[in-house]
Amino acid sequence: MTIHAFQDFFGQCNHTRVYAFRKPPGFGLVCHPRLKKICELLGIKDIYVKTEGSTNNYYTLLKAFLTGLQHQETYQQLAERTRLHVVELDRKGIEELFHHDSDKQTLFSSGQHVPSKGGGLPTAESGERGG
User: Of 86, 92, 100, 131, which is most buried by a Cβ count within 10 Å?
Assistant: First the structure.
């Protein structure tokens, strides 16, 4: 079983604060030695974790990290909360993506209909007036 860090997260337990930042593949584990062991067990391979406060108590350090990891939003939860589509972009570049709609893949959707071109705000050409 592999646990994913969907986004950067924060966790706190007593006076221990943990800030975790996702990193690209190949970055490795840059964190407290105890957290490095936990990340290896969970299958997290690329992450940077900054710790503040008391890090001598391993129980609070672990609890702060796991609390932050547990309270992340998945892509589905993010789509439902924002009522937007979560889209994965390929590596061809932003300019190409605006010209080719087939280059993007929807990961999760909130189920809300997103208007296509021409279905958005009224324009002066359509004869409709706003306000």
Answer: 86
pLDDT tens profile 2-59: 666 778 899 999 899 999 998 888 899 999 999 999 999 988 899 999 999 988 889 9
The token pair at 12 is 């706190």
Q: Where in the chain is the domain with CATH 3.30.230.10?
A: 9-72
What single-letter amino acid sits at 26? G
Q: For residues 29 and 45, give the distance between their C-alpha atoms in angstroms, rounded to a whole number.
A: 6
9-72 CATH: 3.30.230.10
* Contact between residue 37 and residue 44 where contact means Cβ atoms under 8 Å apart: no
pTM, to two decimals: 0.61
